[in-house]
Design a protein that fits this description.
The protein is an all-beta fold and about 190 residues long. It is about 0% helix and about 65% strand. It has a single domain, classed as Beta Barrel (Maltoporin, Chain A), CATH 2.40.170.
């Protein structure tokens, strides 16, 4: 849904609900852990809301949030039935906004900031260890003129310690990081 107004404001709103079933997931043979059978099933049900647009000329915003119930619905091991999926949080949200000066000597100069929230999630089903939820803050300063651009991006501004998993290993994520870029469009 887009809502144009006299001020040029355009906001896009997307609401999605889903109920996904994935079958033939490899499951471990209870009698031999080195053998897998494609008999498993997982389900994911949830809702997601996304809002994006330009609030005023130069001020852009992107926000989203989700609720997700992802679980094992069939497995060779009956104790895993109903358990959460690895690395699948129940909820998360993000907000990113930027402002770019539209006229004058500083035209093309901009800045932005964002928050990214991920809820807690388990690392594996057989021995569930829970990774805690986190909120990461990022920021940017940029300048665009004609076909040229330059930016400084600040990731994990407050040096939050957070982790990701692939189901077997837990990986610490990047600490406070600064990245500079220069671009040219043609």
């Amino acid at each position: 849904m887009k809502r144009p107004s006299d001020s040029g404001t355009q906001i896009s709103l997307t609401l999605a609900a889903y109920d996904i079933t994935k079958t033939n997931i490899p499951t471990v043979d209870p009698d031999n852990p080195d053998v897998f059978f494609a008999v498993g099933e997982v389900k994911s049900r949830g809702i997601e809301l996304d809002v994006a647009g330009e609030i005023t000329p130069g001020w852009k915003i992107v926000a989203s949030g989700f609720l997700n119930d992802a679980y094992v619905s069939e497995d060779n091991d009956p104790s895993l039935k109903g358990s959460r999926l690895v690395n699948a949080p129940y909820h998360g949200a993000s907000l990113w906004t930027t402002y770019e000066i539209q006229s004058g000597d500083l035209q093309g100069f901009g800045f932005g900031a964002g928050l990214f929230f991920i809820g807690d999630r388990i690392t594996n089903q057989s021995d569930p260890f829970t990774l805690p939820s986190y909120v990461r803050t990022d920021a940017t300063i940029f300048y665009k003129r004609n076909d040229w651009g330059a930016a400084l991006n600040f990731k994990n501004l407050f040096d939050v310690k957070y982790y990701e998993t692939n189901g077997f290993y837990v990986f610490p994520q990047a600490p406070f990081t600064v990245q500079g870029t220069i671009s040219f469009s043609f």
